[in-house]
Design goal:
It is elongated and about 55 Å long. It is built from 7 helices and 7 strands. The chain is an alpha/beta fold.
């Protein structure tokens, strides 16, 4: 589906500024040789096509990082605006329908708020929505619909996640190492395997 570009931010290898810049776009050699061209990354594609850009689980980091700088620019873009993509000579024109959605998981404990990602200038241009975790019943219904071929195993997957949650809630050392309870995304990964 070209109308949505989804990026799992916590799975970006390294997570450094170079990795983030490549998500916007990068200069690549031409196949014929002798030249280079700018190729949009997933963020550049979303901006140009006017797709919804979903950045999931933004990790903690410096407010001066490339991630913070780029998301603060993206949050202000409206269709028809121009976006200066690094390495590209002319700006990208923002396509009709472009919107940025971002999520971050709040650590359970043991983390100073300074370790959480904050956009430069704070959250003034963002709308904050807090969501409670899905209930086990809701997770069961969703997983059963998504993975009908393993419907008989889903109860065991959810029991495993519940056991891990219970063990984590009894041990503060494990909580500090993990930063979050297992959730729906973890259940989906287990079902895929």
């Amino acid at each position: 589906d070209d109308s949505v570009v989804r990026i799992q931010m916590d799975s970006i290898s390294g997570g450094g500024d170079d990795d983030m810049a490549a998500l916007v776009g990068s200069v690549v050699p031409l196949p014929e040789g002798g030249g280079f061209r700018w190729r949009p990354g997933p963020i550049g594609v979303a901006v140009e096509r006017g797709a919804w850009l979903i950045l999931e689980n933004i990790p903690g980091g410096s407010p001066n990082s490339y991630l913070s700088l780029i998301t603060s620019q993206l949050a202000l873009l409206r269709p028809g605006d121009h976006f200066d993509a690094p390495g590209r000579g002319d700006p990208l024109t923002v396509g009709t329908g472009f919107a940025l959605f971002a999520s971050r998981t709040i650590p359970l404990s043991g983390y100073a708020s300074s370790h959480l990602w904050e956009p430069p200038g704070g959250w003034a241009s963002w709308r904050r929505i807090s969501m409670d975790p899905l209930s086990d019943g809701d997770m069961h219904t969703i997983l059963k619909g998504r993975f009908p071929s393993i419907a008989d195993c889903i109860a065991r997957v959810l029991a495993t996640i519940s056991s891990v949650r219970a063990a984590l809630s009894q041990s503060s050392a494990h909580l500090h190492a993990l930063s979050r309870f297992p959730n729906m995304r973890d259940a989906v990964k287990l079902c895929r395997r």
